[in-house]
Design goal:
Layout: E1 3-6, H1 12-21, E2 24-28, E3 34-44, E4 49-53, H2 54-62, H3 74-94, H4 104-115, H5 121-130, H6 139-158, H7 167-185, H8 198-221, E5 226-229
Helix pairs in contact: 2-3, 3-6, 4-6, 7-8
Length: 233
C-alpha cells in the first residue's frame, strides 16, 4: 500500500496511474537481460515526477564506506531514501533554471572525492560491481555522478552564492562554537586566536548557514510537493 508523506493535491488521475504502472520498472542489467527494478517512491511537483528505485538506494549505499550491501539493512535503506527524496526535490527545482551540464573534470573531481573516503580504489570498485556498475569508468556511473554534481552546482547557485558573513557573526561563531568545540576536542592545547583561524571559521560559518538554509527550504518545499512511498524498504 502506498504511504503519502507530504501531500498537496496534484493531478490525481495521473498520480494514480503512476502509482500502478511505476511500481516495477523493466531495465537492462549488465548482461543484457531484462530484469525488474522496484520503484519505491515518487516525488512530484505537479508538473514533473521523479522516481526513486531500489537500485537507486543500493547505488547510494555503495558510495558510503562501511555500509553493508548484501543484504542492505532496512535502516540504511531508509536513510538513503530520505537523502534521495531531498535530491529529487532539488532536481525538480533545478530543471526550472537551465544551466550548463557538469564538465568531465567536475565529474572526475567528484569521483576522486568519493574515492578518497575508501581504504582503496579496489574496495570502492568492488562495491560498485556489487550494485551493477563495471567500474568508476562505467558510463552509467559517470552519469549518476554528473547528476549529483549538477545538484551541488544548483545548491551553490541557489544558496551558497548569497551567503555573507559579517565581522560580528565571525566573532560570535568563534566564541560560541569554535572555542567550545576546540576545548572539547583538544583539552590542554593552546587556543588558536581568531585571526589565526579567521578563514577556517568563515568557511565553517558559511557551511552552517548553508545547511540551515537548505533545511528551511526543504521543510517549506515538502509542503508543496507530493512524496509517495510505494514500497517500504
Amino acid at each position: 500500500m502506498s504511504r503519502v508523506l507530504k501531500f498537496q493535491p496534484v493531478h490525481p488521475a495521473a498520480l494514480s496511474l503512476l502509482a500502478v504502472a511505476a511500481l516495477f520498472l523493466l531495465v537492462q542489467d549488465l548482461s543484457g537481460q531484462t530484469v525488474v527494478d522496484k520503484t519505491v517512491a515518487t516525488v512530484s511537483d505537479g508538473i514533473r515526477t521523479e522516481l526513486i528505485t531500489y537500485s537507486d538506494l543500493k547505488w547510494q549505499l555503495a558510495m558510503q564506506p562501511g555500509i553493508p550491501l548484501n543484504p542492505p539493512r532496512s535502516e540504511d535503506l531508509n536513510i538513503a531514501l530520505n537523502l534521495l527524496i531531498n535530491q529529487r526535490i532539488f532536481a525538480l527545482e533545478a530543471e526550472r533554471i537551465p544551466r550548463d551540464p557538469p564538465g568531465e573534470k567536475e565529474v572526475a573531481d567528484e569521483i576522486s572525492r568519493i574515492l578518497a573516503q575508501f581504504p582503496s580504489a579496489a574496495e570502492f570498485e568492488r562495491r560498485l560491481r556489487a550494485v551493477g556498475f563495471e567500474s568508476v569508468r562505467d558510463d552509467n556511473f559517470e552519469r549518476l555522478i554528473a547528476k549529483r554534481v549538477a545538484i551541488e552546482k544548483y545548491l551553490d547557485f541557489r544558496f551558497r552564492s548569497f551567503i555573507v558573513n559579517t565581522p560580528e557573526e565571525v566573532v560570535r561563531y568563534y566564541n560560541n562554537v569554535f572555542v567550545p568545540d576546540f576545548r572539547r576536542r583538544f583539552p590542554g592545547l593552546l587556543m588558536p586566536t581568531l585571526n589565526e583561524r579567521r578563514d577556517e571559521i568563515g568557511r565553517q560559518l558559511t557551511e552552517a548557514k548553508l545547511l540551515e538554509n537548505i533545511e528551511a527550504y526543504l521543510d517549506d518545499t515538502k509542503r508543496r510537493v507530493e512524496i509517495v512511498v510505494l514500497k517500504p524498504v
